[in-house]
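The record is passed on directly below:
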Amino acid sequence: MVLLLPEENAELVDPTRTCGRADVVVNGEIDYERLNGKVLLVEGLLYFAGKWSFRNAGLTGISFEHSGFEVSPQFELWVSDHQNLSSVINRIVCSNLVDLKLCRMTIPFSDYKKLTGNKISSLDTDDVVVNDENGIKVGIDKLWKEVKNAKSVTHKFNDNESMHETAQKLAELSPFQNLDRLNLENIQDGFDLPAFYQFLNVMFLIF
């Protein structure tokens, strides 16, 4: 069985290269010879406890140490505690991502933009540091500018993170047309609540 990408993404991935779980899993494990050169379409791609797995009516382990294939999550990508996501970012096709969750990790802004460039609907960043090309931490306002079509946004600040001007910069953002859920966690001293209320008024004024 070969699963085809939606028509709007036909230019991004050659449909003749796509395949599904049934095409490459034998006796519960991936046959990497069958997967070589293919793009595996999966419901979700997850990284927890140092291991990758994909979700398609159950979890199946997968290793990027085997070269020659890519994975295209059709719904979710959840990554926790990965030490070097850049090493595999080009093996992940993000054109159909809907739900992105990143937890306890540091990534370059260029990788973040690739993951969010598909107009995701849900973003959850938990204790995540995103650095620009000079190694300077990117503010939450710039991160959220990349997900203007999101319906749900959750962000947990790092411990001891400076709250100076955070709320003021958020208040300068343009309204998110589809936003219906917003959650901030681990807010610390120095966070400007009046400025944040202004931000909320801007975000939800259109509803």
Notes: The chain has six helices and eleven strands. Residues 7-204 form one domain. Residues 1-11 have pLDDT under 50 and may be disordered.
